[in-house]
Amino acid sequence: MDRRVYGVETEFGLVHRPAAAPEGVAAGPGRGLPPDELARYLFRPVVEFGRSSNIFIPNGSRLYLDVGSHPEYATAECADLLDLIACDRAGEAIMHDLAVWTQERITADGFNGQVYVLKNNVDSAGNSYGSHENYLIPRTTHFRRLSSILLPFLVTRQIIAGAGRVVPSDTEREAHFAFSQRADHMWEGISSATTRSRPIINTRDEPHADAAEHRRLHVIVGDSNMSSTTSLLRYGSTDLVLRMVESGVPVGDFELENPIGAIRHISHDITGQAKVRIRGGDEFTAVEIQRGLLERAQRFVRQHGAHHEHVQEIFELWERALEAVQTGDHSLIDRDIDWAIKKRLVEDVANRQGIGFDHPRLEQIDMAYHDVNPQRGLFHLLRRRGLVNEVITDEQVQQAMVTPPATRAAIRGEFLSTARAYGAECTVDWVHHKLVDRPLETVMLKDPFATEDPRIESLLARLGDPSTQLRELSLAERQQQSASVALSDRYVLAGPAAAAEPPLI
Ligand SMILES: Nc1ncnc2c1ncn2[C@@H]1O[C@H](COP(=O)(O)OP(=O)(O)OP(=O)(O)O)[C@@H](O)[C@H]1O
Ligand SMILES: [Mg+2]
Questions:
Q1: Ramachandran category for residue 364: left, alpha or beta (phi over 0 → left; psi -120 to 50 → alpha)
Q2: Alpha-carbon distance 121 to 223, whole Å?
Q3: Parallel/antiparallel/unpaired status of strands 426-428 and 283-285
């Protein structure tokens, strides 16, 4: 497919660290808040805005708190990679806004200490949470072919897009640095279950589109990325591999004998020399498999043309990342790829402080890299100091907090914002749009690329004439409304309905 819809769902880690009591002072109320209680605090402004802890917001995305303690943000559907990356980063900014609000609130309620929201994939107790990618693919894609090409790509993708991890020593191995956060937590290649067996590709068939035409491919193996450059390579390379799968060209045969054994083996060998066996008995390193796929993708683009403007940038990054792993010269990518950025940071701290690799301080550095707080998080610190390369700007992220991308999400955002301005109760999901008072007129929008729809316009016209009755609020006005600008109303009633009181006779 030359045009694709993408979405990414991120589950965040949430921690409250009570402050140590000053010497000679009783500890007082400094108990740590359990994560589920903290998550409920965090989501209070969400519930206040949408009267539920599972809502769609005006930028078209979804905020969701399940029974556990990992708040989730699912980006709106995007048809452009940079829109996707900005929309994902907007989710981090929203979580940060909510954390600031929570910090003030719990302090007022007598808890001391700090609240942390982490965009990572493992907590200190070893639990894992995900970063799920969604790709629209044609229904005609042959699934067996898809999995035989995509699985080896995804198993080895960690060397170009992993978030990196400080692994403490245990009875079997020394402390070391691994490519991936998620690799040790995947249990199956392909399956329809997400929770029990954690497959790399999930086959649950909910396309959120015309099911006769499309599927939504659900990839749950990825690490959450902090670096926007890494994100571009992660989604961009996967899209290119999918494009080859869909076109039916031969893509070589790297089908792995044991994908789960391979993903772990590769993750824990930062030299990139680990070999994995493919069906038929040959052995390859992850670099060799990735290089095989990269070369085929380059050939494919030479023959069929580039389908978007970032293809050459993606190829350049992809090549450089493989070169870095193969030669061991990680400085080639230590401003661009999360694992290499983090590895450099961890090594700098270890050298400066003269500590060994299994010092607990380094695990803290690993976590702090993923702190979404732009003043405190270590990725953000490097960003401020100009030590990492970004592909999006802060302005684009700000914009993405309130503005949906140019897909069906734009219709959803407009529908939500207009209905709210008129005080009309409405419900939406990825496909449906309903005014609660008019349940029989629910509009189903199966085309994720659509940016306008006359049925929605006429449904909204029942509420009034937005062009004369609604006024669009400025960003500054919206910032006053709630803990996060993403949870604010775009319009207010400004027409006759909001006119001054009728004169007294
Ligand atoms: N047709 C589509 N093709 C690809 N991605 C889509 C499509 N429609 C929606 N998406 C994206 O899929 C993601 C869906 O996230 P959501 O968390 O709601 O779904 P889910 O994982 O199926 O459900 P749950 O998390 O409740 O199990 C979003 O990021 C959204 O942008
Ligand atoms: Mg989800």
A1: alpha
A2: 7
A3: unpaired
Q: How many CB atoms lie within 10 A of CB 227?
A: 27
Nearest-atom number in ligand 1 for the CA of 60 is 31
472 φ, ψ (degrees, to nearest 5): -85, 130
What residues does each domain of the chain span? 407-498
* pTM of the predicted model as reported, rounded to 2 decimal places: 0.95
In the reported structure, the alpha carbon of residue 135 is separated from the centroid of ligand 1 by a whole-number distance in angstroms of: 9
The DSSP call for residue 22 is P
pLDDT in tens, 251-306: 978 999 999 999 999 999 999 999 999 999 999 999 999 999 999 999 999 999 99
pLDDT of 500 reads 53
Q: CB under 8 Å to 468, separation ≥6 — which residues?
A: 495
pLDDT band at 196 (very low <50, low <70, confident <90, very high): low
Complex ipTM:
0.98
Furthest-apart CA pair in the chain: how many Å?
A: 94
Is 9 labelled a binding residue?
A: yes
- Establish whether 72 is an annotated binding residue: yes
Pocket of ligand 1 (CB under 6 A): 5, 7-9, 62, 74-77, 132, 134-136, 206-209, 216, 430, 448
The vertex-300 CA angle with 150 and 321, nearest 5°, equals 60
- Distance between CA atoms of residues 419 and 410, nearest Å: 14
Nearest CA to ligand 1 atom 8: 208
